[in-house]
Each structure stands twice: as C-alpha cells, then as structure tokens.
Amino acid sequence: MSADRVEGKVVLISGAARGMGASHARVLAAHGARVVIGDLLEEEGRALAAEIGAIAGDDVALFVPLDVTDHASWTAAVAATVDRFGRLDVLVNNAGIFTRGSVEDADVDEWRRTIDIDLTGNFLGMKAAVPAMKAEGGSIINISSIAGLVGFKNRAAYAAAKWGVQGLTKTSALDLGPYGIRVNSVHPGSVRTPLTADLERGFGQIPLGRDADVTEISDLILYLASDESRFMTGASLAIDGGETAGNHLREDA
C-alpha cells in the first residue's frame, strides 16, 4: 500500500459497490484515504468494505446504504461519514445508469429515471456534502461521460443527463470556490468493467485503439482527490483514448 497521495482524506463515493466506483475506492484506499462506499447493493458494498479493510486496516472503509435519488438518504450518508471519520474531504458522484432511446422512441419513465439518477443524484449529493466541506474545503468529482461532451445517437436521456452534469459542475465551481471547494467533471469513454465485458464493441473510433482499464479512470480520480490538483476547478476532463478529439474514422483525401 502506497499511503501518501491522499493520506488522511475522507472520501464518499456513490455507486461504489462494483465497477468503476469499487475501483476508485480500492485505489484511493491504497493511497491513504478512508473511503465510504455508498450504494443500494448492500451485500456487495459490505464485502468491498471488508476487502479493503483486510488490506488497509479496520478503520479505512465503511459501507453506507445510499439511494442517490433521495436527499434524506444522502444526508444520512454524509452524517454517517462524519460520525465515523470526523470529516468529509472528497465526494465522488459516481452512481449512474445507461438507457437507450431517441426523443421519438424513448420511454418517458426511463427518461425521468435516468435524469433522477444521473443528474439529480449529483445535485443532491453535492447539496448534502457542502455543509460538511465548507470549513476546510474539499474536492467534488462528478462522473459524466463523453456523452456529456458530444452528441450520442439514440441516447437522449443519458446524453442530456451527462451534459447536465457538466453544466452543474461548472456553475458549482463558481459558487463553491469561495469555500475552497473544487468541482470538476470526468468524462470517460469506453471502459472495461464487468457490466461491459460481454459487449461486442469496435474501437476503430478511438485513436489509441482500445478501451480503458477501470484503474486508468481511478488514477484520474486519485489526482483530483489529492492536493496535486489544488488549483483545478470547473474543468471537464475527457479520458477517452482520444475519441472526442475529432473524426478518427475519416480517411485522408
């Protein structure tokens, strides 16, 4: 364990029981943070907390039940974090879902559910976390997507939510800067997780020619959580192998 880059920081991560969120928790704990795993998946979340605790120490990881669409649930998660570890330094708004459909054929209930989880969940998390961060400052990291940087065909709700995350991030960087709270958004492209492992995907549109290992995203989260990024706020950071750099599929004339 390399306990240095975020030594002593307390981090609350939503949707952390598996996938990218679990990777973020492992990497942050490996570098000295105490991590709070917020999720509705209680069995998986408690197992992850136990796994991290067995490696990094008993007082390093905590699971809290968290429904990101419910403000009271967020408030309870933040209170449990402060009660256990005495402070909150970093919030990672990681929880999200992926839905398909254009404005013509998307299901209305799916639209509302996607906005509730992928966008409103970020707002509620920030609203709950700010009072605990105001005294000492901190870092809020909102996980968006490259669908929040460019248009995505047949992804009306998902793209709208992820673009909304970028807007929420930038305006909150302005609002929260006087408290020393930094707010940045991360925009991953194709990432290899258990949820995407069985998908048949081509990578011709990606200049680096592959998807990302989940730990490559976690390394960026680590940087944003650390004091190394202390002058960075309001940024929208694409980590996509160059996918949004331009039209990589166009042949030379």
TrEMBL record:
Keyword Nucleus: no
InterPro entries: NAD(P)-bd_dom_sf, SDR_fam
UniProt keyword annotations, A-Z: Oxidoreductase
Source organism superkingdom: Bacteria
Protein family membership: Belongs to the short-chain dehydrogenases/reductases (SDR) family.
Protein name: 3-alpha-hydroxysteroid dehydrogenase
Biological source species: Tersicoccus solisilvae
